[in-house]
Amino acid sequence: MLANNNLNGSARPFPAESGDMSAIDAILRCAAYLSHSRTKNILELPRDIGHDGFVQQCGTQLLQLRDRVPVFGTLSPGQVPLLTNGLDHLKLFEKFIRDNTPRDSFQRIPRNLTVLNLSMCDQGDAKVVMDALIDFRRHNPDARISIVVSKLGPTAYLGTLEYQLYVERLEENNIHVDMFTGVEGPTRQVVHAKAIVIDERTFFSTGAIVDTKPIDKADFSIELPCTASKAFQAYMQDVVLGGASDEQRAKLAARLDILGVLINDPIASLTYISRAQHTLLRGARHDLLVSVSELVDTKITKLLIRRAANGVTVTIQVREIDNVSSKILTQAMRRYGKRISVEDVSCWELRPHYNAIIADFHLAYLGTSYFWPTQRNMIHQGRSLENGVLLEGG
Asked: CB burial class (10 A; 0-12, 13-18, 19+) of residue 87?
């Protein structure tokens, strides 16, 4: 457990004493493997990626339960995240669906299969996932199959003849599409979480279900243990597919939180992921690895610099960074030397598409949410559904 924004226990180097690779070991080794490319100078990273529309604050209704300090648990031991390239993570999706296609005699009828993702289409490499869904339908004619997405493929794909055939294919196979987009404008809500839930089994990932070309990305995937999976299935049914109240959303999210499964819920303005990220950032005593898609929040950047000033060794792996953060990090590297380093992962091949924070080689966040200030404040495009897990080393 994490309590009072503090990480208890000593740092544990890998590998685990048992000889088995722990979840933390897996992330660290994968990050080391991906960093074989020579990184660029921090000043060469992309800039000016902010937008004036990100400054409008949305009103929220405070909930008594939501405002309590969260009690963070970690995922039960034994689950190790898998690193894949773009094509292979789609094959993992396909395998998860096909492995769970046969119906056991004791399973309830009808069965449930829900795909939760930013985007899903049947183009190129992604076709294997769509084919698996259709085979699932053939074997389970009474199953409820839903796709909860913000879009059905890339923008250029929408409106094409191929897209129309794709929509018809979904309708023919009675696959319900729930466009998780909320209202238009500054309060627009989207889904950035990525998961497949089949009955009481749950598979998390950081990868979208789209063609992997032209950019081959590195993603992490992990299957949730039994108890956590059942809790997430309840969250999916009551919150994502149902019309749960904000209070009920908070209760279900808090239950997941205790089990090491984290949610940012835009509807009820629940920021469990953001709180867990801050807990790891502030609680690390010796070493801090931050590997994120984008770092465009100067408050987070300054926090990382303060951790280096306090003697923590900080390693930042990032694809995009804002101009102010770039400048102050450059100054910090001159001042604190090896205690803080920045690697530009945009030149890596494969390019990391996951977001991870590892504290003292022992506790880690792994998931979809990164450091947009809009994620922390729950405004504009930051109003997105996110998912992740807290992991503990061996």
From this structure: middle
According to CATH, the topology of domain 86-215 is: Endonuclease; Chain A (3.30.870)
On whether the 23-58+275-392 domain is CATH 3.30.70, my answer is no
For residue 227, give the amino acid letter. Answer: T
* CA dihedral sign, ordered 271, 277, 278, 279: positive
C-alpha 108/C-alpha 79 separation (Å) is 26
Residue 114 three-state SS: strand
DSSP code at position 13: P
Burial (CB < 10 A; 0-12, 13-18, 19+), residue 68, is: exposed
CA separation for the pair 86, 125 (Å, rounded): 9
Tokens of 256: 């997941």
Distance CA 1, CA 257 (A): 10
Q: What is the pLDDT of residues 4-29, one digit of tens each?
A: 322 222 222 233 333 455 666 766 66
The structure's pTM equals 0.81
How far apart are the C-alpha atoms of 53 and 211, rounded to whole Å?
30
